[in-house]
Amino acid sequence: MSRSSAVKHQAAQTHPASEPDEQAWANDDRAHELASEVEAALELEIADEPYPQLPANHQEALRAELQHRLGAYLSAGRARVVITDNLRTMMSVKRGHGVYTFRLHHMFIDAPPAMLRAVVAYAEQQDAEASEQLRNFIDANEDVIRQRGGPRPFTVDVEGRYHNLQEIFDALNADYFGGAIKARITWGPRTNRKRGRASIKLGSYTVEDELIRIHPVLDAADVPRHYLAWVVYHEMLHEVHDMPIVDGRRVYHTRAFRQAEAKFDQYAEAVLWERQNLEKLLNR
Fold first, then answer.
1. So which domain of life are we looking at (predicted)?
2. CA 63 to chain centre
3. CB 3.0-4.6 Å disulfide test: which of 67, 127, 177, 264 passes with 81?
4. Helix or strand or coil: residue 212?
């Protein structure tokens, strides 16, 4: 039987103007008492319906549509939307640099206009009536939250500040692979990075998850699209090229892999840009 939801209130923290702030809506196994400050989280029980497995291009279309809908209600700035399958946090908002970044559980994809207006009202004004609407909406959609112990969730985070990974992936898939690549793609975690490192992993491909992650250091105005596309193309090749074990070690980049990599239209330009700018990337 479902437990009743409780609202957790937290005092709003003061941040410098250059720092984004965040509010989070969450669920947990224990109820919290009501306090008298800004509402920051919702607590609810987790149900057992799995996350819908949709093709990556369909996920991106739904995300982009939701982003457009939310942006229409903002009084200032622009919206950036990340769709999640989180178990605990149903909604969080970060504000900074003229952008509202909404991390929303996929239950919000089909939310009616009134609910999206509540999301924006809460993000912009911490409106109490809007927070109550959101609490009720999340309670009503409890059945779409994954059961604990289910498949590892995948967070759709493809639209960066400067580059959209899904657009690049889809173009490469059509031009070089005939649409055969099944992998999904996302930016890696956007965490504080240590500058002056000796090396950096700009991309990765996980065989088990069929997932490509791209380092967010490449989401920058001075990183040309063709270079980012080359990094994505490199990771896509891993899906179609064998990784044999030779002398007890796995070979990720065989001769055939390197030959295919060189077929990228702007291969020479990409290699040259990397040589000229690698140190800059290492120090970001």
1. Bacteria
2. 10
3. 67
4. strand
Q: State how far the alpha carbon of 275 is from the alpha carbons of 104, 234, 269, 272, in Å.
A: 38, 16, 10, 5
Return d(Cα 275, Cα 272) in angstroms, integer. Answer: 5
Most confident of 25-34, 36-45, 102-111, 211-220: 211-220
Burial of 70 (0-12, 13-18, 19+ CB in 10 A): buried
Residues in Cβ contact with 127 at an 8 Å cutoff, skipping those fewer than 6 apart: 118, 121
Closest CA to 160 of 169, 151, 152: 169
From 49-58, 136-145, 170-179, 203-212, the region with the lowest mean pLDDT: 49-58
Using an 8 Å Cβ cutoff, are 60 and 160 in contact?
A: no
Q: 165-282 belongs to which homologous superfamily?
A: Metalloproteases ("zincins"), catalytic domain (3.30.2010.10)
The predicted structure's pLDDT at residue 153: 57
SS (H, E, C) 20-88: CEEEEEECCCCCCCCCCCCEEEEECCCCCCCCCCCCHHHHHHHHHHHHHHHHCCCCCCEEEEEEECCCC
- Higher per-residue confidence, 199 vs 226: 226
What per-residue confidence (pLDDT) applies to 24? 54
Q: How far apart are CA 24 and CA 92, in angstroms?
A: 4
More confident call, 225 vs 282: 225
Are 158 and 187 in contact by the 8 Å Cβ rule? The answer is: yes
Element (H, E) at 105: strand 99-105
Predicted confidence band at 44 (pLDDT cuts at 50, 70, 90)?
very low
Residue 267 makes CB contacts below 8 A (sequence gap 6+) with 230, 261
Bridge pairing between strands 99-105 and 78-84: parallel
